[in-house]
Design a protein that fits this description.
Elements: E1 4-9, H1 15-27, E2 32-36, H2 43-54, E3 60-65, H3 72-78, E4 84-86, H4 100-103, H5 117-129, H6 133-161
The chain binds the ligand Nc1c(C(=O)O)ncn1[C@@H]1O[C@H](COP(=O)(O)O)[C@@H](O)[C@H]1O.
C-alpha cells in the first residue's frame, strides 16, 4: 500500500509554503505530489484533477494551500472521498483576515485548518498511519524527538536555576 499526500496549491506563488510542508513529509518518508490549480480560476480543471485520484486504491490525504479567499479547500472537500486539510499561507495584510475564509464553511464541508505547515503534514501523516504500521512507527520516532528536546532543555535550564531540590 502506498499512502500519499497530494498538496494542491492555488498558485505557483504558494510554492514556498508548500516546500515547508514537504520538509516534514520528507522527514517522515511519506510520499507526496505537488499540484497547482485554483477553484476560483480553473474549476473544471480542478474537478478533473480530483477525479483522476478518486479511483485510487491507496489512501490519500489532500493538503490545500490557498491564500486570500480560500475556495480551494472547500471545493476539494466537496468533491472527493478523501480527507482535506487546509493550510493557508499566512498573510498579515488586512489584519490577517484572510484566514476567516478557511474557517467559516458551509454545512457538509469538513476541511480542518492547520496554520503551521509541519502541523498540516503531521495531521496528514497521522491519518495515513491508521492504515500503515511502518508509517506509524516513523511518526512515533519523529514525535519522540520533541520530547527528547524538551528533556534536554529542562536539564539545561534546571542546571542554571540554582534549584536545590
Ligand atoms: N485562494 C485561492 C484560490 C482558490 O481558492 O481557488 N485560487 C487561488 N488562490 C490564492 O490566491 C493567492 C494569489 O493567487 P495568484 O498568484 O493567482 O494571484 C494565492 O495564495 C492562491 O493560493
Amino acid at each position: 500500500m502506498a499512502a500519499k499526500v497530494v498538496i494542491i496549491m492555488g498558485s505557483k506563488g504558494d510554492r514556498g509554503h508548500a516546500e515547508s510542508i514537504v520538509k516534514t513529509l520528507q522527514e517522515l518518508n511519506l510520499p507526496y505530489e505537488l499540484r497547482v490549480c485554483s477553484a476560483h480560476k480553473a474549476t473544471r480543471r480542478l474537478l478533473e484533477i480530483l477525479e483522476s485520484y478518486e479511483g485510487s486504491s491507496d489512501p490519500i490525504v489532500y493538503i490545500t494551500i490557498a491564500g486570500r479567499s480560500n475556495a480551494l479547500s472547500a471545493v476539494v472537500d466537496a468533491n472527493t472521498r478523501f480527507p482535506v486539510i487546509a493550510c493557508p499561507p499566512y498573510s498579515d495584510r488586512f489584519a490577517g483576515m484572510d484566514v476567516l475564509s478557511s474557517l467559516r464553511l458551509p454545512s457538509g464541508i469538513a476541511s480542518p485548518t492547520i496554520l503551521e505547515p509541519d502541523g498540516a503534514a503531521l495531521l496528514a501523516a497521522k491519518m495515513l498511519a491508521l492504515f500503515d504500521q511502518e508509517l506509524a512507527q516513523r511518526l512515533a520516532s519523529y514525535r519522540e524527538r520533541f520530547a527528547a528536546e524538551l528533556e534536554r532543555a529542562d536539564a539545561e535550564v534546571r542546571g542554571h536555576g540554582g534549584a536545590s531540590a
